[in-house]
Amino acid sequence: IELEIDIVRAIAADEFCTYFQPKTCALGYVVGAEALIRWNHPTKGLIVPADFIAIAEQYGLIQALQNIVLRDVCILIEQLTASHVIDDTFNVSINISQCQFNSAKLKTELLTTLNDFSISTSQIKLEITESMLSGDIDNAIQQMQELKEDGFILSIDDFGTGYSCLTHLSAFPVKELKIDKSFIDNVLDDEAGKSIVNTIISLAKSLNIPVVAEGVESLAQLEALKAMNIDSIQGYLIAKPMMKDDYVKWHKHNL
Ligand code: G
Ligand code: G
Ligand code: MN
Ligand code: NA
């Protein structure tokens, strides 16, 4: 069966689900989470996004998947709010694809789903990869500005891998910059690895943009990043992405 037909079938069969990975501040308090889609395939088992996101983008199915993720995010936020374990500074990140970012309908799609819940746009963070910000800069800034005006928080994902023009960084209305895992992997290797991460953190700090380290796996990495004044941490050291119920349990035990 063709994968795109299988995606359409799987949407109707409710086989997609959303995992959540927590993000903590340098002191260890939970400050947010990232939503990561998974496909519970009846015969193939759990399928990761690397194996279907590109196909979904190609066949115009990505917004349908995004709506599922956003709905799951809203359900999580409502549940955590009802349990009094978050306040309205807690936000959940969703990953935006290039084709969605280019679409004039993105904002309406997001607002339509949010409308079914009593959740503020400021509790939703939109992750745009750095590579999406290297083409038509004026268009990118305008799209970001419009999303920001509706209250969405914007984040630059996979920073350091996208060859964006650094002079534009101060023009982007973003509230977060996520250093790509590939740089965090090398932070203990040698002076060069350390210096690259330190330079990204200093650059973001000078622009008043909080910085997240992605893919932190060891205490030694965490200590090195804290010494460089990192703001937040995401990675297996804190927790792997979890199903909603496991995430809620984890969250309540790690307040
Ligand atoms: O969850 P995992 O680490 O396997 O994610 C791999 C990639 O898939 C990441 O780059 C992430 O941005 C992307 N991804 C995960 N969930 C979504 C989603 O809901 N929408 C889009 N567009 N990409 C996603
Ligand atoms: O959207 P983005 O490309 O940033 O997606 C983050 C991806 O990184 C997710 O697929 C998530 O499962 C993965 N991830 C998060 N933390 C770690 C980690 O500590 N180690 C590894 N190997 N992967 C991680
Ligand atoms: Mn991401
Ligand atoms: Na990333």
From TrEMBL:
Q: Which residues form the EAL domain?
A: 1-255
Q: Which domain of life is it from?
A: Bacteria
The regions listed as transmembrane in this protein's record are none
Protein name, as recorded: EAL domain-containing protein
Note the residue range shown relative to the complete protein: 493 to 747 of 754
